[in-house]
Structures are given as C-alpha cells and as structure tokens.
Automatic annotation (TrEMBL):
GO CC annotations on file: membrane
Transmembrane regions listed in the UniProt entry: 21-41, 47-63, 84-102, 114-137, 158-175, 181-198
Ranges of residues in domain Dinitrogenase iron-molybdenum cofactor biosynthesis: 309-400
Residue ranges of every copy of the Cation efflux protein cytoplasmic domain listed in the record: 214-290
NCBIfam families attached to this UniProt entry: CDF (TIGR01297)
Entry's family note: Belongs to the cation diffusion facilitator (CDF) transporter (TC 2.A.4) family.
Alphabetized SUPFAM superfamilies for the sequence: Cation efflux protein cytoplasmic domain-like, Cation efflux protein transmembrane domain-like, Nitrogenase accessory factor-like
Name this protein carries in UniProt: Cation transporter
Pfam families membership: Cation_efflux, Nitro_FeMo-Co, ZT_dimer
Protein localization: Membrane
Topological type in the membrane: Multi-pass membrane protein
Keywords: Membrane, Transmembrane, Transmembrane helix, Transport
C-alpha cells in the first residue's frame, strides 16, 4: 500500500469519527426534545440516529483494519474488511427502514398531539439540514478515496433526511389537526429505504464474492494495454474490488520468441500506464502468452531472383536479395523478391537492411548470418530472427508458422 492509499484511508477514518460525534449530539438533542414534547416520531428518530453511530463506527473500524499490511495469513491484505463493514451498514439501512415502517404504522393507528410543537419542529428541521450536510460530506470523501462503505454511509445519511422530514411533517400535521398524515408518508418512505438497503447489500455481497462490478473498467484496461508498444493482443481480463481498491489481471499476447528483457519492459510499461489512469488500482498481474498470427510476413535472404526456387544466402547485409513471403493459416499465398538496400552502402549495411525489413512489415527473418548489431536492431523493431531448420526454402518458410 502506497502513501497516497494510506492517507486516503486515514481521511476516511476521520470522516467516520466526525460523523459519529455529530450523530451522537443529534441523537441526544432529539431524544430529550422528543421526551419533553411527547413526540413518539422524534424519539424514534433519535433511536435511528444511534443506529447511524453504529454505522459510522463500522466504517471507521473497517477502514482502520484495511490499513494493516498484508501478512502470511492475509497475503492480499485486509481490504475486504471495509466491504464487510459496508454490508453491515446495508443491513442497518434495511433494519432502519423496517423500524420506520412499524413506527409509521403505529403513528397511523394511534395519532397523538405534540407538546412544545415549535421546538420539536425546529429540532426536526435542524436534523434534516445536518443529515444533508453529513451525507454530502461522507459521499464526497467516499468517492475521493474509493470507499464503498463511506459512500453507503453517506446514502444512509440521505435516508436520515427523509426520516427527519417525515418527523417534521408529522409534528406539523399534528399541530394543524391532521393526525394521520405522518403515518401514511412514513410507510411509503420506509419501503423506499428497505429497497435501497437490499440493493446496497446485494452489491456488497457481490464484491465480497469477487464478482465483476465494473465492466467499463475492463474495457479501459484493455484499451490502455493494447496501446503499449510490443503488445499484439490482450484477453482474459479480470477485475475485482477489495474494499476501496481494485485488483486486476490480464493475459498479454506478444510476438513469439520475445526476450525476457523485452517481455519485462512491456509488462512494466503496461502496469505503469494502467496505474496512471486507475488511481485505486492496488495490483495488476500480467501473464504473457506467445501470439500466433493468422497472417505472417516471413523474410529470407537469397542469392538470386528465382521465387521459391531461389538459392538461400548465408549472409545478411551482403545478400543481394530478400525474398518476402506472406503466410496465411499455414499457406503461402504470395512471394516477392526485392533488392537488399544494404548492399549499396559502405557502412552500416546491416542497419539499413534491418530498417528495410521494418518498412516491409516483416514479422520473422530466417537467417544464420545476422550479427549482434543488426540482431539487436531487429529485436528492437519487434522482428524475430529464426535459425533455419530446413534446407528447402518453402519448408523453411512453413517451419516459421508451426
């Protein structure tokens, strides 16, 4: 875990603590005024606020434990504790919805008048405003650090706004003589709360089961990786969330015979590019596979222009001609013999020949006469050099495709 990730988790922990303290103060105020005014709805909302404290503490504990370093028992870290904390909050949201539904049903059956209604109205309105500010704060921090638990806690606070509005409407309607309005509106909002809680719980369970929750991220990783030099193809991309972080893996297709150094460089470039775009990516595992093209362009150095009957040259830069064959699905579909431009130079003949092969988009060169300098240039241009295992020119070309 890097320093930025640690700072993000600390920031989330502070947000959870601030939320707990504010909810504690709010719960006490609503409880006292509810008792003095005789408002059952305000007392129920006070109990609801105490459940918010439990939710915020669950977020804090989850984020705090997520900061622990990976060890022998948990080599992938403790990040899923944050997801588990998010699930607890989702369950609390469902329970809260059921409580509000029961209280609303009771208020509908047994409506009552309120003492000191103006004070009770002020407290209910204050609760709605504070809940709104808390919800905005927690969701903003949650999105910034990628914490689903904190985002869910913010959604929970948005539910508190509706709860406080129900209380406000109930007290106001009681004051105006319409005693049953609070119960009806409360039941409707409670059903919405229960639905939201189940939806969030479903998402949390899927995250804990390593389900792919973000198909768009797979496409983003695929696009980034395919734009890295030396990559022939990308497939089998898997993405999973673990707390606020993302873990990904992919299979990378490269040219056959790629050196360990080049493979390592390509892998490093992919990881750097992906992590540069996806800030909450903790780990990217890359598995390299040789890429077998349906169409290959094969070059062989020859002594004369006789097509597939040409004599094979043992030289590289001094070979007068280059035969280029296009092979599709194991069949030679076309051949052409071209002059080797390297023979016209006094110096750097091999480099000139290598650059010519690149311009011709050659995939594989079959030759025994390539020196270290040209071989390095060819490797840098992703052109494989293969030592011939056959004496016949046609068999030599077909051997490359196998």
């Amino acid at each position: 875990m890097n320093n930025e990730a640690k700072n993000n988790l600390k920031k989330g922990g502070k947000a959870a603590i601030y939320s707990s303290l504010i909810n504690l103060l709010l719960a006490l105020v609503k409880g006292v005024i509810g008792f003095l005014s005789g408002s059952i709805a305000l007392i129920a909302d006070s109990i609801h606020s105490f459940s918010d404290i439990v939710a915020s503490l669950a977020v804090y504990i989850g984020l705090k434990l997520s900061m622990r370093r990976p060890d022998e028992k948990f080599p992938y870290g403790y990040y899923k504790i944050e997801s588990f904390a998010s699930l607890i909050i989702s369950v609390i949201i469902v329970i809260t919805g059921i409580e509000i539904a029961l209280d609303s049903y009771n208020a509908f059956l047994n409506p009552s008048t309120i003492e000191i209604p103006l004070v009770a109205l002020f407290v209910a309105a204050l609760s709605a405003v504070v809940s709104f500010l808390l919800a905005r704060y927690k969701q903003e921090i949650g999105r910034t650090i990628g914490s689903q638990a904190l985002i869910n806690d913010g959604k929970h606070s948005f539910i508190d706004i509706f709860s406080s509005i129900i209380v406000f409407v109930g007290i106001l309607s009681s004051y105006m003589g319409y005693l049953r309005i609070q119960g009806i509106s409360g039941i409707l909002v409670a059903l919405l709360i229960i639905y939201l809680g189940f939806k969030l719980a479903k998402d949390d369970i899927l995250v804990l089961l390593d389900a792919n929750m973000d198909p768009e991220k797979i496409e983003e990783i695929k696009t980034i990786a395919e734009n890295v030099a030396g990559v022939e193809g990308v497939h089998a991309i898997k993405v999973r969330r673990s707390g606020p972080f993302v873990f990904a893996e992919l299979h990378l297709e490269t040219k056959k015979g790629l050196s360990v150094e080049n493979a390592s460089e390509i892998t490093g470039n992919i990881k750097k590019a992906v992590k540069g775009r996806i800030k909450n990516l903790d780990s990217l595992t890359v598995q390299i596979e040789p890429f077998k093209k349906e169409r290959l362009r094969v070059a062989v150095l020859v002594e004369n222009k006789n097509g597939l009957q040409s004599d094979i040259s043992e030289h590289f830069a001094r070979a007068p001609y280059i035969l280029i064959a296009d092979v599709v699905n194991g069949q030679i579909i076309s051949t052409v013999v071209k002059d080797n431009p390297g023979t016209t130079l006094e110096k750097k003949k091999g480099i000139e020949t290598a650059e010519f092969l690149e311009k011709e988009k050659v995939d594989v060169l079959v030759s025994t006469g390539v020196g270290e300098g040209p071989k390095y240039v060819l490797s840098d241009k992703s052109i494989d050099v293969m030592v011939p295992r056959c004496k016949n020119l046609e068999e030599m070309i077909m051997d490359v495709y196998k």
